[in-house]
Amino acid sequence: MRTNELFPLLPDLAALVTVIEAGSFSAAARQQGSTPSAVSRQIARLEAALGLTVLERSTRRLRLTAGGQEVLRHARTMLESAQAAFDGAASHASNVEGRVRLSAPKAALRQLIHPRLPELLASYPQLALELHVTDQVVDLIADGVDIAVRLGDPPSGYVARPFMEVRTLLFAAPDYLARAGTPQSPAELAQHSCLHLAELPGDDEWCLVRGNERQVVHVRGRYASNHSEMRREAAEAGFGIACLPDFTARQQLATGSLVQVLPGWQLLGRYQGSSWLVYSADRYRAPRVRVVVDFLLQIADQWGKATS
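Predicted structure:
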């Protein structure tokens, strides 16, 4: 299809996205300010041009065909590119000002994000930040949150950008290991002072994996905390072996105040895996939100390069 033949079909591709996201021709028509019959004609025109049925219609529901799913994917990419073009122009035309509310888990906010925020605020004197520090899942709308760092599966209905991979590893001070010995297998952890979360039942059972191997050990110790920075400081003070997100001990590993224990093993648990930067597409259009999102992604990118 030649370019001059393609241009008239771009609104029809946009209409397809609206129909699928709205759930019906009537709802799509309300969003477009048109009529259901006009939307139906747009879809029919698109199908005729493609030589393909994209929607199977019944009295109760609409369903994309296999070919329609492929067309929808490209149509969404088209709209995202168009939005990016307008957003890029807005970023040059608009001042970055106003308040942004950011929610993130305690360790990520304290260790990764907070130390860099003065740099962001210095770059944008009219920008204000409000930090919501929690390991709990927040409702962006109900809690009034503009941007959230979320561990695990991202919620539907929002933009979710990969932020960073979090691993939980074991660390101890060299002087502790000199006194108590260095464990050579997970089973030996039962004979050590272990610094665990003690937040939920089962936090004193550590499950470690290495390839296809899996071992569970019941740990004990004189100190427990659900704050990773406190566990790290206790480990540095020689209280025992601490479970920590890997990024919280990066500086201590570099200086030698902590060393990794059982480096071939990974500790399973709630606070690890893929994390995401989550926000609504509507909020991202605001320059104040966009600059914070871009800054956070820059932090994650630099962390990834430093650990690769």
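Summary: The radius of gyration is 26 Å.
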